[in-house]
Design a protein that fits this description.
single chain; 501 residues; alpha/beta; six-stranded mixed sheet; 25% strand
């Protein structure tokens, strides 16, 4: 259906794409995989008309395809569904689906025709429960994702690109999306699926293409390729172990929670985190895991319970006080609150410990820059240098900068909320190695994750939170993915158990 051949895209002297070739067939899902910064998003922006290539050709149904902008791509039947949804939350489902494609007569919108188109689309998606009149902002994230798909179908899209679509979805919403994609393939559409999760690639895609450093380096049939071989193509080498684990020696308890409760969540959380260990917290979206970390760090108000750090009770938690006590917090929302995207790498890395680069009230810029350069080298941050704006880095490199800040701060207790969210497999392996190294050094790590394989692979103990209450932590050897999910859904009604709360 669509072919991209020898596509090249330059940004100044930098080659974001260097002769990439991609072939897509009708009725199949094609996985596009690679590390952060490999060129996947740039290639899809060329496909969807956001960028014009400097060289190369594209054909759609055998005809030359040269979109001069997104409008041309949409008219040709190419739709892009980004990781961060592009919906108007204050408008209705109907208005969002028909946005840019409104039908009118003598200046008046033909609402009856709109309603017929939207109902047809929702029926095609097999989700008639989504009301055309409902405000998009009132819908769950999963339902909003389906509205994005509906908008593409209303525009008669033949090629739909999904860029990391499940990064903010619950398990149940993700499965609903997969079912929709299966139906799109059956109806003859072509789906391009970008994801860092190999289980999703195996669930959906028939073929895959790997990009590395802006080039096509491999591909093939998903069913005939192992995960190890895919990873080797992505990173250019074989990863010895995705979950490294050295000898860890558990020491004294450094963080203790007793019946901790927030204004809404958590309802009751108790744990003892020891030096030299990684304690994982599992649970469904909305169970209260993030709220627990934020309460410990002082970002959310505490209603009751006790927090002790190194044996001393914390009566009024605050981020400033937490930093002074050796706490370091990594937010799951790195773009919204975890990083200052318009500021440089060096400014972000040193933000919570500027004092060590000051003398007599003056900031020593050379000292700060050298510190940022050292941490960037240690964590393998790919950049043009410490003065580069963090917002221009790939997601994986942004996450490394956020972690570098905690290391520069010399945090003794690390509160990590979804530390590998939106990160490619090679960067995940590096982050896992770093966590293991910190634990072996005697640091304490409290880690929230929705990705069960990493909890079981990285942690020494795991506790499960359900409906705001944290269960007892047990050795990781005593858990399975199935057992964790059973614990996470115990006592919940069917809706809550689906992860929609």
């Amino acid at each position: 259906m669509l072919e991209m051949r020898d596509v090249t895209k330059l940004f100044g002297a930098s080659r974001a794409l260097d002769g990439v070739t991609l072939s897509l067939r009708a009725g199949e899902a094609h996985a596009l995989i690679g590390e952060n910064g490999a060129g996947k998003s740039t290639l899809m922006k060329v496909l969807s008309g956001v960028y014009r290539p400097n060289a190369g050709t594209m054909t759609l149904d055998g005809l030359r395809y040269e979109p001069r902008g997104p409008r041309d791509a949409i008219k040709a039947g190419v739709a892009m569904i980004y990781q961060e949804l592009t919906l108007a939350p204050h408008l209705s489902v109907e208005a969002n689906i028909m946005l840019g494609r409104e039908q009118s007569s003598f200046g008046f919108v033909k609402r009856g025709e709109h309603r017929r188109v939207v109902r047809r689309v929702l029926d095609l998606l097999e989700h008639p429960e989504i009301s055309p009149t409902a405000a998009v902002g009132s819908l769950s994230v999963g339902a909003r994702q389906l509205v994005e798909v509906g908008r593409a179908l209303a525009r008669d899209a033949r090629v739909i690109v999904f860029d990391e679509p499940t990064s903010s979805l619950t398990r149940r919403d993700a499965e609903r999306l997969f079912e929709v994609i299966d139906r799109l393939k059956t109806s003859g559409l072509c789906v391009v699926y970008i994801s860092h999760f190999f289980e999703e690639v195996r669930r959906l895609a028939e073929r895959f293409t790997v990009l590395r450093d802006g080039r096509t380096v491999g591909g093939g049939l998903v069913a005939e390729s192992s995960q190890a071989s895919m990873i080797a193509m992505m990173v250019g080498r074989t990863l010895d172990s995705l979950f490294p684990r050295g000898e860890r020696r558990r020491g004294d308890a450094v963080l203790e929670l007793n019946a901790l409760s927030g204004m809404t969540l958590p309802r009751s959380a108790g744990l003892a985190l020891h030096r030299g260990e990684v304690l994982g917290v599992a649970g469904l979206v909305g169970a209260g895991r993030t709220e627990m970390l934020r309460a410990v760090y002082g970002l959310d108000a505490v209603r009751g319970g006790v927090i002790r750090v190194a044996g001393a009770e914390v009566r009024a938690p605050s981020p400033r006080g937490g930093i002074a006590r050796g706490l370091g917090f990594l937010s799951e929302d790195r773009k919204g609150e975890g990083l200052a995207l318009t500021m440089s790498i060096e400014e972000n890395v040193t933000a919570t410990a500027l004092g060590r680069h000051a003398r007599w009230g003056w900031l020593r810029l050379r000292s700060r820059r050298e510190a940022a350069r050292r941490w960037s080298a240690r964590l393998g941050v790919k950049s043009s240098g410490p003065t580069q704006a963090v917002g221009s880095l790939s997601g994986g490199n942004q996450q490394k900068v956020a972690l570098a800040r905690l290391l520069h701060q010399e945090a003794d207790v690390l509160l990590l909320d979804e530390p590998t969210k939106g990160v490619d497999i090679a960067s995940k392996a590096e982050i896992y190695r770093l966590i293991d190294e910190l634990a072996r050094q005697g640091r304490a790590v409290l880690m929230v994750s929705s990705y069960l394989p990493e909890l079981l692979g990285v942690c020494d103990r795991v506790a499960v939170m359900a409906r705001g209450r944290l269960g007892p932590a047990r050795r990781v050897e005593d858990w399975t993915e199935h057992a964790i999910m059973e614990e996470a859904t115990v006592g919940l009604d069917p809706v809550a158990a689906s992860g929609d709360r």
